[in-house]
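tool_call: predict_structure(chain=1)
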Amino acid sequence: MTSTRPTLRQRYRAAYAKLPPGLQLVGLQMWMPVFFVCLFCLCYVNAFHAPAVHGAPVAVVGAARASSLEQATGTMFDYHPVADRAAADELVRDGADIGALDLTSPVRPVLVVASAHSYQAASLARQTFSPVFAATGQKLTVEDLAPLPAHDSFGMTTMYLSLAWCIGGYMLALFLGLMGAPLRHRVRAGVILGGGALLSLLAMVLVGPVLGAVHGHFLQLWGIGFCWMSAIGLATNGLSYFFGRFVAMPAMALFVFLSIPSSGAAYPAFMLPQFFQSLHPYVVGYGITEMLKHTLYGVGAPYWKGFLLLGCYAAAGVVLMLVGKRWRQRREIRRVLAGRTTMFMDAQAASRDHGIAERESILREHCVDDDDAHAMAVAAEAQGRANEDALVANAQPFDGVERVDEDRAAGRG
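tool_result:
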């Protein structure tokens, strides 16, 4: 008769199970601060520690003099000719170009910027081109198509409101994924939509009437916030079926760590490393901030781009939800039938048993009848088992499980 030698994983789990239950639970959640620190450094610090300008688009009206500009500024800017001043203004308002140079007058060069779209880009253009023209004896005239108001002097409100909507949206679904596994699709969607409406309303009340960071457009911004928080919540909810208690990992990566640096809200995309530039048109932060700027200041990409991106994230969330729940139920049923557990489940069970024993000890110290204490302990244990079985009880059976159930009912299994 041969004995099976425990695997390294089995030995590790056995050793870990000897720790105090509370310490087991804490240890199994330590991945989150490690993940947070790593992603914050790799995304935020990596993107912002040394911004460099390379290939920033600048429209030029009267391009005959563009060659001298290229010699003066090197590879910082990518000059391209446009037909007239109106076309140049449109590119600047849309945020496609950081600025435009109107060189049709030989003695009065004009720089066109839009500070409300990007304060950093407008400042960079002023600081770069003013000395270039001054060296030729010309004074550069700066025309700001969309100056920033006094209550948003650096244009950072859109970034922080975008961040609030992103975090609020994914946290709505995060707790659904952690605690609401047995809930039906319509209940989960209802929580996400209702929570999105309430949280976006709360955000608008705070940034508007309370703080004065946003003036006007209350209902419009509330609606935009609701749509984006709902889309992010639906996407996170879909991911939760596949990642379980680790759903915070892809949610934070997608909607916070990659989204905000790549959005162009803090620094224009052309000042970021190439990796973040490539993500720029696809992250939720880009869609949110462009819609905010378009609503508040009349600059930024047209609404249809933001709504298209929003719809893609929402649709992806719905597809993941429909596919993911069925997949997770089958996976959970296979685990239960095989008698397998996870380290987190074992730690929860050990913590529950420890809590019951500690409760009985406390009750005895206070002269509570042992029978009453035992009844309370049994009830608590039964409730714990009921919670663990809730997902399986709620699952829709598939053929393999139906056959197992039939065999058991007939006394054959």
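agent: Confidence is low (pLDDT under 50) at residues 395-413. Proceeding to next step.
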